[in-house]
Design a protein that fits this description.
The protein is mostly beta strands. The protein contains no helices and twelve strands. The protein has a four-stranded antiparallel beta sheet with strand order 1-8-3-6, with no helix packed on it. Strands 2-7-4-5 form a four-stranded antiparallel beta sheet, with no helix packed on it. Strands 9-10 form a two-stranded parallel sheet.
Length: 171
């Protein structure tokens, strides 16, 4: 069930666990690995309702996340945690198919914004309007290199996917 963490054990580590979840067309989800132990050669795969592969990648650490992904088809998806013949012993994990909902806010120029990213893959979108051309400054007020920002205007992208830590200092 999206939104509910699932824990499991591959014992032996060369076996496969299968899960199913239902989604609507256009649903956005983040495939989050929250805990891993053993089974260094494991993979995880997600198949859409028609058997098409959405992704197939390593499942060996909490850095094996995927997403966010926009699901094109509605129906039942299959998630496979696949052990490898190369792995011995047991392998344990916790994963989370996390629904992602973006948030939108008006931005008041000159005001400090303090907001939180509530789930992995979420985007907070801020909008503002200018009555005339202006020079604006951005101060991230954070030292988190995992946060990124973009600026889109009438002429297209002005800044694209820039790290907060690369935004307001000469170094």
């Amino acid at each position: 069930t999206p939104g509910t963490p699932v824990s499991g054990t591959l014992d032996p580590a060369s076996t496969t666990d299968a899960y199913r979840f239902t989604a609507l067309p256009g649903d956005r989800v983040f495939f989050d690995v929250t805990a891993r132990s053993g089974g260094a050669s494991a993979q995880w795969t997600v198949l859409d309702p028609y058997g098409n592969q959405l992704f197939d990648r390593d499942f060996n650490s909490t850095g094996s996340d995927v997403g966010p992904v926009t699901l094109a088809a509605g129906g039942t998806y299959t998630l496979l945690v696949e052990g490898s013949r190369l792995d011995a012993g047991a392998s344990s994990y916790t994963l989370h198919v996390q629904p992602v909902a973006d948030e939108a806010f008006p931005l008041t120029l000159g005001a400090t914004v303090s907001e939180a990213i509530d789930e992995p893959g979420e985007r907070d979108v801020y909008t503002f309007s200018l009555a005339a051309p202006a020079t604006l400054y951005f101060d991230s007020l954070t030292n988190n290199s995992l946060l990124r920002w973009s600026l889109q205007g009438p002429a297209g992208p002005a800044v694209s996917n820039r790290a907060f830590t690369s935004s307001d200092s000469h170094d």
